[in-house]
From TrEMBL:
Origin species: Bos taurus
UniProt entry keywords in alphabetical sequence: Disulfide bond, Glycoprotein, Secreted, Signal
Family: Belongs to the BPI/LBP/Plunc superfamily. BPI/LBP family.
Name the UniProt record assigns to this protein: BPI fold-containing family B member 3
Lineage start: Eukaryota, Metazoa, Chordata, Craniata, Vertebrata
Domain Lipid-binding serum glycoprotein C-terminal: 270-470
Amino acid sequence: MLGMWSPLLLWGLVTPCQGLLEKVGTLARIDKDELGKAIQNSLVGGPILQNVLGTVTSVNQGLLGSGGLLGGGGLLSYGGVFGVVEELSGLKVEEVTLPKVSVKLLPGFGVQLNLHTKVGLHGSGPLGSVLQLAAEVNVSSRVALGVSARGTPILILKRCSTLLGHISLLTGLLPAPLFGVVEQTLFKVLPELLCPVVDSVLGVVNELLGAVLGLVPLGALGSVEFTLATLPLISNQYIELDVNPIVKSVAGDVIDFPKPRNPVKVPPKEDHTSQVTVPLFLFNTVFGLLQTSGALDLDITSELVPSNVPLTTTDLAALVPEALRKLPPGQQLLLSLRVKEAPTVTLQNHKATVSISATIHVLSYFPQGAHEALFQLNGVMTLNAQLAPSATKLHISLSLERLSVQLVSSSAHTFDASRLEEWLSSVVRLAYVPKLNVNLDVGIPLPKVLNVNFANAALAIIENAVVLTVPS
């Protein structure tokens, strides 16, 4: 395994600079506590100990059982190393305590990983007496952080050793010479026995790290593929991944919406927290996809608004009578709203806003006949964006702040279009904004970072980005 991945370590690691960091992509900072939890959880919830060591509850099963490496004629059993010592027979490892995990990040290299555990040995002592021993063991390993062949961050075991601690005789009698034989044999055996645990743990954690990169669907709009943009960086507190989001259409074509000219300045991460930074680019891209797919266009009729906001010539005549010519009162209206340019998203001063420029055609509406154009407006909607994180997405909900309109053309007389703004605002607020929020349900996808749940993350809007922070 070491030889296979060694060339990839030439990517190297750089310690992140202190203070503000300039990034454009999605920035993920994994706290060392989060890495420690991932390793501990892999031991608790996974089959690692069962597959490699056996467990307390499954005595004589698995690798160390009666038919395993050390049992039934194995290294420590009758016929093995102790076979030459007639006073001992059948000694084998049957119990392994769940290891305690200790993680230390090594800037410029990777991780110092220590596993402290206790090993229980059972066998027969002199004169056939039952023999039970317990040994404390510390597994110390150096793990490098590199990049795999498919471009994912990966932890690679470079060195592993074991330190044998106190050995306790729990049951039976064991003369000092035989005790020394046991101790010397454990020194030889335990590295081969316990270092595979580290390799198996890293396999689980590498699957989680690999999940940072992948394809995330954007509903009917397309998908976002996360790739590693630069080398992984490591400090004494966190691992930093600069992730590049590649947006694709439903057909699989890459969508290249303009990125900000100025890079995002990300504030320093607090200790014992993990962090994901969502750039303005992703917000602009989602709204751009909505615009190009026609999801921002809407024909508004009286069926889409409450009865207290009727769309009739009677109500319009009260505001701009000169625009209606000789149309009879009570005639239904149709508002055809079309968005021809991608909306503009602004992230700054702890606030998120969306500006949508639209052309609004106002027509008389005949359900069973032709429509008659009355006038055309250019409108600019300014909407406040409320942001709420979930486990895997950053959700957006819009509310109308203001609407301004200008008259472009009229089939009758010109008029001051500002007189329509309050009426149109009510229509947009009740009919158009709810449709926008339904389409925005796809949210902004977040990269998966060691299964960190961002649902309760603290959210900060900085210039051109949103920062999500969760305690480790």
